[in-house]
UniProtKB/TrEMBL annotation:
The gene is ptcA. This is PTS cellobiose transporter subunit IIA. CDD domains: PTS_IIA_lac (cd00215). Keywords: Phosphotransferase system, Sugar transport, Transferase, Transport. The lineage of its organism: Bacteria, Bacillati, Bacillota, Bacilli, Bacillales. PROSITE patterns: PTS_EIIA_TYPE_3. The keyword Nuclease does not apply. The modification Phosphohistidine is found at residue 76. Coiled coil: none annotated. It holds the Pfam family PTS_IIA. SUPFAM superfamilies: Enzyme IIa from lactose specific PTS, IIa-lac. The keyword Nucleotide-binding does not apply.
Length: 107
């Protein structure tokens, strides 16, 4: 396995875990456990940050003149990274909506 494949798998692993944590946070919010939901979002953020660090390494290499072979695996890693960021934003909004609704309804 070459270095770029390892990088792609590292991105996929980290952002996949981040997405799972974000979905888990939404489940906590559905049960009105907003404190645990927020804590779980933060855990997801740490995994997303790790994926971002690896992603940044690729960008820095490219900027330094080291060409990156674009493979289907790397494209998949990029897609997973972007979807994790999108899912995070949407789930945070959904949790905030649930919190607001919970406060307004007194439940």
């Amino acid at each position: 396995m070459n270095e770029n494949e390892l990088i792609a798998f590292e991105i996929i692993s980290n952002v996949g875990t981040a997405k799972s944590k974000f979905m888990e946070a939404l489940a906590y919010a559905k049960n009105k456990d907003f404190k645990t939901a927020q804590e779980t979002i933060e855990i997801g953020n740490t995994f997303l940050l790790e994926g971002h660090k690896v992603h940044s390494k690729l960008i820095q290499q490219e900027a330094a003149g080291e060409k990156t072979d674009i493979t289907l695996l790397l494209m998949h890693a990029e897609d997973q990274f972007m979807s994790a960021e999108t899912i995070k934003l949407l789930i945070i909004e959904m949790i905030e909506m649930r919190q607001d609704f919970s406060r307004k309804c007194g439940s």
